[in-house]
Amino acid sequence: xxxxxxxxxxxxxxxxxxxxxxxxxxxxxxxxxxxxxxxxxxxxxxxxxxxxxxxxxxxxxxxxxxxxxxxxxxxxxxxxxxxxxxxxxxxxxxxxxxxxxxxxxxxxxxxxxxxxxxxxxxxxxxxxxxxxxxxxxxxxxxxxxxxxxxxxxxxxxxxxxxxxxxxxxxxxxxxxxxxxxxxxxxxxxxxxxxxxxxxxxxxxxxxxxxxxxxxxxxxxxxxxxxxxxxxxxxxxxxxxxxxxxxxxxxxxxxxxxxxxxxxxxxxxxxxxxxxxxxxxxxxxxxxxxxxxxxxxxxxxxxxxxxxxxxxxxxxxxxxxxxxxxxxxxxxxxxxxxxxxxxxxxxxxxxxxxxxxxxxxxxxx
Length: 364
Hints:
The chain is α/β, with parallel strands linked by helices. It folds into two domains: 2-136 and 324-363, 2-Layer Sandwich (Nucleotidyltransferase, domain 5); 140-320, ATPase, nucleotide binding domain (Nucleotidyltransferase, domain 5, 2-Layer Sandwich), CATH 3.30.420. The protein has helices at residues 39-48, 55-74, 109-116, 125-130, 140-147, 187-197, 208-212, 217-224, 239-242, 244-251, 257-280, 299-308, 327-340, 348-351, and strands at 2-7, 15-22, 27-35, 84-87, 90-95, 102-106, 120-122, 154-159, 162-168, 178-184, 288-292, 313-316, 361-363. Strand 8 (154-159) and strand 9 (162-168) form a beta hairpin. Helix 6 (187-197) packs antiparallel against helix 11 (257-280), helix 8 (217-224) packs across helix 11 (257-280) and helix 11 crosses helix 12.
């Protein structure tokens, strides 16, 4: 079955679309396209993310985003063959823990199905939460099938707005896999770059700005003392932890912008390494750290990871035939395919759910 996966993540850098040939035991990407968000749309999403806002703004975006998704889909090589779309939507609030776990992704699947003429699976996270899970991370199901190895312990790392890992011991059965959000990915760095450039730039291309600064060791270690990093998985994070309020506290330190960007870059790598050592290595050797997401293209992050995890081979998912920018879009194509077949596709060992469930809403 040919399935398109559409992903727009917490980094808000744009819309990723992957067209995937899904089989019972294999997956092959046929086409990939990234469509940047128009600046005004990106600002509108930021304005409603984890803030008090008027419900009208959320409702309008809920109908506007499928129009942008449809255009991105129609510009993706191989889209005409697609028989199904899996669309994550745009997360504007996620609270995976607490007394009343909840999540909200906008970008209505019914509108997207109408615009494309293709059935859509959307709204993947609520069913896992209803079953007692965090609603995240969901991509570990895909990591497990793509990267499991008979002899090597592997950690699949995705560095998007938030960083998350999937820990896969050799010969692991699904219930032996753990996965969780380690902390910030590119989100904090992106916001600092946008602040420094007045919005002209939205990310640190090739880590150039971080390379000009020096990480502030005192700030690094004070940030690492947050109780989140000691909390055992399953756990999840989002813009509510690392959004504008977090960045404002960094700016209030008076540290120069370049040094703050260098510090935030090191902090991303340090929290990943800390969580690998603290939780992954108690389960298995981290022989391979397989990196995907936008952070895989930041040599400063990769360099820090290699230094902090000297016993792991740090590599990029392209070594395994998977474009690092495309992994999450490919992932939601695979998750949609499982939903279409009425197969569960959460990993309770990763999300904390009481049992495996079929994810998402289907719009025919």
